[in-house]
Amino acid sequence: MERTIMIAGEQDQYHFSQGCAEAIAELGAKAFISYNPADFDKCDAVLLPGSWTGINARLWGEENVGCDILDDHLDACQTEILQKAAAAAKPVLGICRGFQMINVFFGGSLYQELHHKDHHKGEHIQEKYHDTACVPDTLLYNLYGERLCTNSIHYQAVRAIPPCLQIAQVWFSPQVTEEEQVHFLRLCQEGAITETPSDCIIEAAVHESLPIVGLQWHPEILLKNPAHAADAKKILRRFLEL
């Protein structure tokens, strides 16, 4: 049966919303772009795409100091869509801002501006690439193994992560030793990490019981620009199978 995916983002953001719709179509599913909660019943699953728009920090109890492009209406609509998806146990994939929105929705918080942002923030749509580590016994590890190279276009990131989300992938700054990386990944595997230092950026997380996955990177862009990075089809196909 052909699946229909709701791309819950802005119509005019080609590299994000429309790029996700094209990626989904390339893999054989239908996609439509709308962040109107009234359209939720038309879909089998939801994809929260990236965006140039940030998430208002008031949603996790802080004053906004890190983003000059906010859209409270988008935040409210995506929150309602997540509420509907969680209640119906419909699959959700969050990409970049979409992952951050999932984290905030379940009670987490964000770094408003990374001090390592030069490793992550692409200029315009020229994404950066970096190596990451996957947490053993997680979806990302099962798909990609211990390490994978991913792309990056962000300057904000997950900080505090709620207990219902399991960390599945991490970027480490060059200052983090191999021994420290192994220890951190072990703590992630045990569910002992509640807030990450900015030297250890969460690149993916999976909900403990719901079919909800968040990625800080952009598989929809990698699908068109594979370069030397991860095979984006693996995670997108897995989402469509949820």
Write a structural description.
By secondary structure, the chain is of the alpha/beta class. Helix content is 30%, strand content 22%. α1 links the parallel β1 and β2 (30-33). The longest helix is centred in the N-terminal third of the chain and has 17 residues, at 72-88. The protein is globular, with a radius of gyration of 16 Å. It starts with a strand and ends with a helix.
The major β-sheet equals: 9 strands, mixed
Give the C-alpha Rg: 16 Å
Quote the CATH topology. Rossmann fold
Whole-number tally of structural domains: 1
* Strand element count: 11
Unreliable residue stretches: 117-126
Q: Record the strand order, biggest sheet.
A: 2-1-3-4-11-10-9-6-7
Which helices and strands, and how do they pair?
Layout: E1 4-7, H1 14-26, E2 30-33, E3 45-48, H2 72-88, E4 92-95, H3 97-105, E5 110-111, E6 128-134, H4 139-144, E7 147-152, E8 157-158, E9 165-172, H5 178-190, E10 200-207, E11 212-215, H6 219-222, H7 232-241
Quick recap of the structure?
With 242 residues, the protein is α/β, with parallel strands linked by helices. It is built from seven helices and eleven strands. Helices cover 30% and strands 22% of the residues.
List descriptors.
single chain; 242 residues; Rossmann fold; two-stranded antiparallel sheet; globular
